[in-house]
Specification:
Residues 137-408 form the Protein kinase domain. The chain has helices at 12-26, 34-39, 48-68, 90-100, 109-119, 192-205, 238-244, 251-270, 320-325, 330-346, 358-365, 378-387, 398-413, 419-422, 471-474; strands at 74-75, 82-83, 130-131, 137-145, 149-156, 161-165, 170-173, 177-184, 214-219, 226-231, 273-274, 283-285, 292-294, 301-302, 305-306, 311-313, 327-328, 441-443, 455-459, 466-470. The chain is an alpha+beta fold. It folds into 3 domains: 12-66; 93-231, Phosphorylase Kinase, domain 1; 238-443, Transferase(Phosphotransferase) domain 1 (Transferase(Phosphotransferase), domain 1, Orthogonal Bundle), CATH 1.10.510.10. The radius of gyration is 23 Å and the shape is globular.
């Protein structure tokens, strides 16, 4: 944030909740004028300083939105270039980077060129990719190890670039904060995999919202490993929250998380990418539990890409066409999102009572899905079943799911819908298999069966009696989703 703000006087949870409400009402409309935003701030709980902070933050947000439209209709008085925003003149920002090219080096020409290319594509001054000397980092602590690399926490002494001062033509920084260091295995000599993750992080995160931010690359001064520097979230991922403290999440929280996740996916898909490894362990929650960030882009790549030689993921969230053919797409992301929607209802991992192994893969390819739980709106159930369809073309889009969440949240904010009445709590239970984790692994199986039509088991409210139905018998009509 800007240094002239005393952040101790700003209640960020309250500020974020106000912006969230306004996003729901106005995000898809044309009501983006700053005056409309200011008129919404007649809340007696908000102090004068908080109101001024919100107004300035929204002005910057408004200016950043102009950058995305690529309409250069203003003349910058500093560099005489046409730009979209006088506050964030991209020519001025990129010229500043050029001035500094000779003042740093990673020691690797390929990495230097990669970072410079990223900086020459910079749009937003708070989403900038840098080379970070290792001596600027301190207090490194091991956090976890995933399927393809290690995660540490670290303090970055001066922090990432937070803003651009168009008057002084200088960058502003956050100051010392905690971050994540992520190393990929065997990254002493950066591989195609390393540059894929770094490049995907930048291409997506620099332009989209709702992603875990990546700020640059460093090199460990002892191991020689190149490492990515990511935004640190001190709250849990969605999977851990559902497992350890499920009562903390209200349906407002759950629908807000689902809305943000589906919105982020829709933006990724619009750019021609698929996430390819979506599961609750990769959805990081904000402290207020109404917002989240999608992370772990180690395997993200172009949609419709066949990867039979390297099928990676957590089995219950992997679509049948991925398990059989290695065919990742935006529709395989939607299959995973349907599993997450089920997990939001039950609080349990799909197929969490069995080992995530070859036997489960075969069951999924045979059409088995987790049981449908009663006590939720029919439209929500239908969306889940559509997401699980063995035919990818019959699955909904991320936009449809986001719009449905918007519909419910808008109704709640306007006082016309009671989410606790729509979503009835039922005591569904499931044993937990000790070997099941949200750790993505490579799977290599041959001679797998062809994917079969989905078989849906619907539990009833009377003692959880069950019946098996084909997808077509439940989905007689398309879901009418209004925003």
């Amino acid at each position: 944030m800007d240094p002239h703000w005393d952040l101790s006087e700003i209640r960020f949870d309250l500020m974020r909740s106000i912006i969230e409400k306004l996003d729901v009402f106005y995000k898809e409309s044309q009501n983006k004028e700053i005056n409309k935003f200011i008129n919404e701030l007649n809340d007696p709980e908000i102090t004068v300083k908080e109101k001024n902070w919100l107004i300035e933050e929204y002005i910057r947000k408004f200016e950043r939105d102009k950058l995305v439209k690529y309409v250069n209709n203003e003349l910058c008085p500093k560099c005489n270039s046409m730009c979209s925003s006088l506050i964030y003149c991209t020519s001025c920002i990129r010229n500043k980077f050029k001035e500094n090219f000779g003042k740093w080096s990673s020691g690797n020409e390929v990495i230097d060129k990669f970072i410079q290319e990223c900086q020459m594509k910079t749009l937003f001054p708070n989403k900038i990719f840098e080379w970070v000397p290792f001596e600027n980092l301190r207090d490194i602590k091991f956090l976890a190890e995933g399927g393809f690399g290690k995660i540490h926490t670290v303090e970055w002494i001066n922090g990432q670039i937070s803003n651009w001062d168009h008057i002084t033509q200088q960058f502003q920084r956050y100051g010392t904060h905690k971050y994540i260091l992520k190393s990929l295995k065997n990254s002493n000599l950066p591989s195609e995999e390393f540059f894929r993750e770094a490049g995907t992080h930048y291409d997506l995160y620099a332009r989209l919202k709702g992603l875990v931010w990546c700020f640059g690359i460093t090199k460990h001064n002892i191991t020689g490993e190149f490492m990515l520097i990511l935004f640190y979230h001190n709250s849990k991922d969605l999977g851990s929250k559902l497992s350890d403290d499920p009562e903390a999440l209200t349906w407002k929280n759950k629908l807000s998380i689902l809305r943000r996740t589906s919105e982020t996916l829709s933006q990724i898909h619009e750019k021609g990418f698929a996430h390819k490894d979506l599961h609750p362990g990769n959805i990081l929650l904000h402290d207020n539990l109404n917002d989240c960030y999608v992370g772990d882009f180690g395997f993200t790549g172009p949609a419709e890409e066949n990867s039979t030689d390297k099928i990676v993921g957590v089995i219950p969230y992997m679509a049948p066409e991925v398990l059989k053919y290695g065919l990742y797409s935006d529709k395989s992301d939607i299959y995973a999102l349907g599993m997450i929607m089920w997990e939001l209802i039950t609080g349990f991992r799909p197929f969490g009572n069995v080992a995530y192994d070859l036997a489960l893969i075969i069951r999924i390819l045979e059409g088995e899905r987790p049981p449908i739980i009663p006590g939720v709106p029919e439209e929500y159930t239908q969306l889940i079943i559509k997401c699980w369809d063995s035919d990818p073309s019959k699955r909904p889009t991320a936009i449809e799911i986001k719009n449905y969440c918007n519909f419910l949240l808008s109704g709640m904010y306007r006082g016309v819908l009671n989410l606790d009445e729509l979503f009835i709590k039922l005591n569904y239970t499931q044993d937990k298999h000790p070997s099941n984790f949200y750790t993505s692994k490579a799977h290599h199986y041959q001679d797998l069966p062809e994917p079969k039509k989905s078989k849906i088991t619907v539990l009833t409210t009377k003692g959880y009696d069950s019946q098996q139905l084909g997808v077509s018998s439940i989905l007689d009509e398309d879901i009418d989703i209004d925003e």
